Amino acid sequence: MNVVGIIPARYASTRFPGKPLALIKGKPMIQRVCEQAWKSALDAVVVATDDVRIADAVMGFGGQYVLTDPNHRSGTDRCREALSLLEKPYDAVVNIQGDEPFIDPAQINQVIELISRDDVVLASLAKRIEDEDELLSPNTVKVVMDAESNALYFSRHPIPFMRNLDRDEWLKKGVFHKHIGIYAYKAETLFQIADMQPTALELAESLEQLRWLENGLRIQMGITQVENVSIDTPSDLQRAEQYVQNLNLNKR
């Protein structure tokens, strides 16, 4: 199976304009994402951007890019257009977040293994929640799964609800998982979901994966132990700089 990694990278951002070009220890964030993706089992890595400044940066460090429509509503839609623009056909796509400069290549390989199964059309990852603030934060997307690790539902609210227990007991008595925002799609499935109209649950939670579930598609989840470092705001750059410094110290 031929699998391409696509990294959606838009320039405009309400909280952090130009985020893909933000420097972390001298390297643009988008370069760090590409370098991690290159270490995985992907057959190719492509940046899907809406801005020539990002395209120029990618070309400068030897990466591959395609220019896409600036008006896409999601990274999934941008991946769909990017796939249609590539000269070589691919059997599956891994959507890699452009704001995770330290993504573990093993996580990419994990979703590649899942999407390579004949019975899997969509795949993603989850990690057990161990922090109460994270459990209660609406910015942390939670997921519950069936016995075969297919997603049943995603929510910004803690799920499951632990009835008859005080909230400070939930993590001690229950098991909760957060969604890790990396997706793998069979190529035909990516085209299918991009044509779906927004659904009631998706609009309520502002989570596009609920549209896929509402339309009867299964999302196979893998469990990861790796904690991801996302860059959402300019203030997160300091944390990223410290992360790189710690990595360098550990290599000595």
CATH superfamily: Spore Coat Polysaccharide Biosynthesis Protein SpsA, Chain A
User: Given the structure, what is the number of helices?
Assistant: 10
Helix content: 25-40%
Succession of helices and strands: EEEHEHEHEHEHEEHEHHHEH
Main beta-sheet annotation: 9 strands, mixed
Task: Return residue spans where pLDDT drops below 50 for at least 5 consecutive residues.
Answer: none
What is the fold-level CATH name, i.e. the topology? Answer: Spore Coat Polysaccharide Biosynthesis Protein SpsA, Chain A
**CATH class, please?**
Alpha Beta
Mean pLDDT: 93
What portion of residues belong to β-strands?
15-25%
Global Rg: 18 Å
Q: What can you see in these coordinates?
A:
There is one protein chain. The chain is an alpha/beta fold and 252 residues long. It has a single domain (3-124, 180-251), classed as Spore Coat Polysaccharide Biosynthesis Protein SpsA, Chain A. The protein is 34% helix and 22% strand. The strands form two sheets. Strands 1, 4, 5, 6, 7, 8, 9, 10 and 11 form a nine-stranded mixed beta sheet that branches. Helix 3 (75-85) packs across helix 7. The chain is globular, with a radius of gyration of 18 Å. 38% of the residues are buried.
Question: Helices and strands in order, then pairings?
Answer:
Blueprint: E1 3-9, E2 23-24, E3 27-28, H1 29-38, E4 44-49, H2 52-60, E5 64-67, H3 75-85, E6 92-95, H4 105-115, E7 122-128, H5 132-136, E8 142-145, E9 151-155, H6 170-173, E10 177-186, H7 187-194, H8 200-205, H9 209-214, E11 220-223, H10 236-251
Helix pairs in contact: 3-7
